[in-house]
Amino acid sequence: MSCGEMNIAVMTKKYAHSISLWKYDGIYSFYNHNEENVSGYMDGTHFACTDAAGKLIGYFCFGEDARIPTMEENVYDDGFLDVGLGLKPDLCGKHYGLSFLNHGLDYVQKAFHTKCFRLSVAAFNERAIKVYERAGFSVEREVTNSYFHNKFLIMKCIR
Q1: Beta carbons within 8 Å of 25's beta carbon, 6+ residues apart
Q2: Backbone angles phi, psi at 141, to 5 degrees
Q3: Which one-letter DSSP state was computed for residue 52?
Q4: Fewest CB atoms less than 10 Å from the CB: which of 11, 12, 16, 61?
Q5: In the beta sheet, which residues pair with residue 50?
C-alpha cells in the first residue's frame, strides 16, 4: 500500500460502524472503540481513509475532537491543528503507519491550509510515537488524561 492508493472520504455510517467494531490486541486494546458510539464519528470532523478499492483502512479526525481531556490546564495553545487517527487493527505493525499518517497530513494541509499539526498519543504507544517522530513530530510535553488517568504525549510538527 502506498500513499497513492489511499483516499480520504466523507465518513459514512457504514464506515463508522466498521470502526466501532475494531478490536486491538494486548496493550493496544486501550484504543478499542465503543460499538454504541457510531454517531461520534458522524460529527463532521472524522474522515474515512480507504484503499484504491474503497476498502476502509483507517480514519482521521481533525480539530478539537482530536484532543484529549487533560488534568493540566492550557495544554492546547493556538496555532496548531489537532490530528487524531486510527489504522485498522490488522494493518498495525506492518509498516503502513508512516504512509498512512503522511497521506492524512497531506490531505489536511490542503483542506485546512495549515502547516502546523499537533497530536496526542498514549505514552505507552512506542510504535505510534516512532511513526510520528519519523513524520517530523517531536514531543512538546507529557500530560495526564483526566478520564483514564494515564500519561499522554503532546507532539507537534511544522511541515
Answers
A1: 89
A2: -170, 165
A3: T
A4: 12
A5: 7, 56
d(CA 133, CA 155): 9
Q: Alpha-carbon distance 141 to 138, whole Å?
A: 9
Among 78, 76, 58, residue whose Cα is nearest residue 68: 76
CB-CB contact of 18 with 56 (8 Å): yes
CATH topology of domain 3-113: Aminopeptidase (3.40.630)
Closest CA to 140 of 158, 155, 122, 125: 155
The answer to whether 68 touches 101, Cβ cutoff 8 Å, is no
Instruction: Give 26-71 pLDDT, tens digit per residue.
Output: 999 989 887 777 888 999 999 999 999 999 999 999 999 999 999 9
